[in-house]
């Protein structure tokens, strides 16, 4: 039993029979968009909390884990990540980490629902602090169509920072989209998909890896990391490379990048690459 | 709100304003001992769940993470872990992992509350499968006194697999106990303390590390790992060595050990050693 359900936001994970929740002090926003319902709460100890269709997207306190691990292992595995596209990622946290890499020349964020970004600007402004970077472009459109229409071989990294594989994001977990990503990537290009919990969603991860294999990717790795606000608190990003290996950077490259992180470092990267499915 | 509070066990973490919980189908046991209250539930998707004084101890589904990460990084960092003592650990899961190491000649588990072990034998029998190993000794006594009375320099590894730092386990987080552990360890010996969440309990971790430093330990490292059933889903074990470094084993040593794991491997070990406090 919760001490006072009125003052808690909780998310039940039906397939795992588990729940996570946070004490909330204020319901800051409630927006119904063409695509989904977005809520933002002020929590007692986790800063702000964004929820889409009842599923937790992020909190101020712990989103650094997800955003660092979606971004840095891919960008540091690529020798020259110049052209980056983020599909989804409307909170702009992944974009912020991408723009921390000096090699990046163009970072396009293609989010289907503009309201996610507008609410992030309002309630997670620190994640949007690099949105004015001249290398950044914010597009509000369908990610499936965006990748389909991308010139073949024109991207170095695609980061699929999606919601769960139900609702608007469902197609982002399908084989056609993954094949389109393969086509859009240059040789040596890297695709990353957020791939849910290594403990709860092993079938989904196998499906993602199967799609990547079928699409012709050569190296596929699933990297695990802690992520308190998601079911089980253990999450993953699955990477696929079009030619070439997936490896952490040298300590020199990481230190030379000047990028400050709270979780990621090359040794953590190496450990995440060794994640085995339990 | 939870869909039906009657059928959920939830644990609120007051200091973090967060909650985790599981759907439960049956309340299997309720035992009040001299030290604490122990409950065991059958959950819908996590196997059995043991709770002490309202705090989750373990579930069938995810305890491998904690038990592997409490044990293997220490035993593989030691060249010859022959004499091992576990303080607490009454569920016998840590003992099972310790006994997987062929170099171990003696593994003593000193748990203050015999009922924890009796209930584990009943509801988590897989964790107790090595309790009959002739190298194993189960002692039910006060861990503080046990370490104080241990011959100086007679142990290679001490694993403090305790409950939270309130109630019976409080003294296990104090400076005197840590100093006694230092005295009981041989040169090159390693102490491991479960040290709570890197996200929520940073002050506690700093305190543990401070005690270790004051006790004269030479190398101190806090290793993070996912642990779904504990608050934030991100947990840690802090290691301290009396002379010598803390490093992962070679791939040859790990493979030669014949130990099968679901999470631990030398690369994961290396990554965990690189955990930084956020």
How do you describe this structure in short?
Two copies of one chain form a homodimer. With 278 residues, chain A is an alpha/beta fold.
Describe what you observe in this structure:
Two copies of one chain form a homodimer. Chain A is α/β, with parallel strands linked by helices and 278 residues long. The first copy, chain A, folds into two domains: 5-59, Spermidine Synthase, Chain: A, domain 2, CATH 2.30.140; 63-273, 3-Layer(aba) Sandwich (Rossmann fold), CATH 3.40.50.150. Chain A is 28% helix and 32% strand. In chain A, strands 8-7-6-9-10-12-11 form a seven-stranded mixed β-sheet, with helices on both faces. Chain A has a five-stranded antiparallel β-sheet with strand order 1-2-3-4-5, covered by helices on one side. In chain A, helix 1 (63-77) packs parallel to helix 2 (93-99) and helix 5 packs across helix 6 (202-215). The model of chain A has no long low-confidence stretch (mean pLDDT 96). Strand 2 (18-32) of chain A pairs antiparallel with strand 2 of chain B, so a sheet runs across the interface.
């Amino acid at each position: 039993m919760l001490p006072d359900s009125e003052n808690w936001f909780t998310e039940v994970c039906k397939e795992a029979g588990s729940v996570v929740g946070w004490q909330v002090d204020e319901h800051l926003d409630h927006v119904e968009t063409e695509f989904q319902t977005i809520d933002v709460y002020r929590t007692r100890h986790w800063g702000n909390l964004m929820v889409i269709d009842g599923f937790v997207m992020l909190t101020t306190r712990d989103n650094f884990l997800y955003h660092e691990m979606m971004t840095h292992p891919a960008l540091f595995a690529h020798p020259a990540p110049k052209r980056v596209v983020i599909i989804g990622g409307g909170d702009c946290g992944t974009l912020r980490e991408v723009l921390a890499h000096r090699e990046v020349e163009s970072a396009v964020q293609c989010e289907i629902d503009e309201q996610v970004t507008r609410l992030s600007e309002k309630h997670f402004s620190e994640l949007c602090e690099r949105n004015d970077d001249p290398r950044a472009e914010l597009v509000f459109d369908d990610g499936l169509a965006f990748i389909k229409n991308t010139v073949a071989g024109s991207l170095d990294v695609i980061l699929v920072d999606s919601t769960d594989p139900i609702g608007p994001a469902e197609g982002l977990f399908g084989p056609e989209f993954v094949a389109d990503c393969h086509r859009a990537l240059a040789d040596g290009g890297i695709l990353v998909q957020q791939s849910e919990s290594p403990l709860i969603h092993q079938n989904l991860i196998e499906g993602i890896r199967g799609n990547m294999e079928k699409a012709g990717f050569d190296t596929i790795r699933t990297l695990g990391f802690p992520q308190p606000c998601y079911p089980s608190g253990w999450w993953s990003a699955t990477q696929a490379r079009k030619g070439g290996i997936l490896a952490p950077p040298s300590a020199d490259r990481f230190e030379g990048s000047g990028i400050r992180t709270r979780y990621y470092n090359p040794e953590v990267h190496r450990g995440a690459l060794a994640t085995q499915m339990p």
